[in-house]
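[Meeting: bench + compute handoff]

Bench side (C.D.) handed over the final construct sequence. Compute side (W.E.) agreed to return the predicted structure before the next meeting so the bench team could plan truncations. Sequence as handed over:
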Amino acid sequence: MAHIVAVANQKGGVGKTTTAVNLAAYLADAGKFVLLVDLDPQANASSALGVDHRNIPHGVYEALIGAVPARNAVLPTPHQGLKVLPATQALAGAAVELVGAEEREHFLRKTLLELKNDYDYVLIDLPPSLGIITVNGFVAADSVLIPVQAEYFALEGVGQLLNTINMIKDSLKPELDVMGAVITMYDSRTRLSREVLEELYKYFPNKIFRSVIPRSVRLAEAPSFGKTIVHYDPSSKAAKAYERLAREFIMREEGVI
């Protein structure tokens, strides 16, 4: 049965979707069966995997509301072992439709029940805003992975996110766990990046991933070609960093570290 991980940060522009997509790709490259759920109406994760979200008949929204079986909405990707449950433009309206629904926070959890046995990992790319769609992602997840940009304003977002996670644990999902934080857009040449890393250890004393994602032009370019860094520039520093992150992720899962 899959371990379901929500990739989340309430601050935009911190490398959240980039981390969800490239971690998923490298987990699949390591021989794992992975499903990436694009829960962000902007559909950036879908686009980064080569999916034209404007021209697909159904996606995660249609699966959420029961219009199609979840398996029928899952699409293959160029990566063997990696599939995507894509976002479509219709997802933007889901928040309005779910407001008055019974057990509105549990739609995604119920949707993924159909798929959990097909994969080793399910990664959910959450929207940066806090709304009913994001809450659905937290309730469906077993744990949360938090990408954090190496800048001071990002630390404020971490505090807000931890408050949100605690609220979810108190009211909806007591067993929800913080898997850890991964540092993104890191520049070892700057004192600021090093200071932010030190500060993060206060938030997550035992849960900072050792694999640090560097700031990278090649990494920023890859989505515009509908590719992950695995296929766009596998020899780049960013590619090697995400490969290390995937290995560390698996080792944590297996209790090696």
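W.E. noted at the follow-up: The mean pLDDT is 90. C.D. will use this when planning the next construct.
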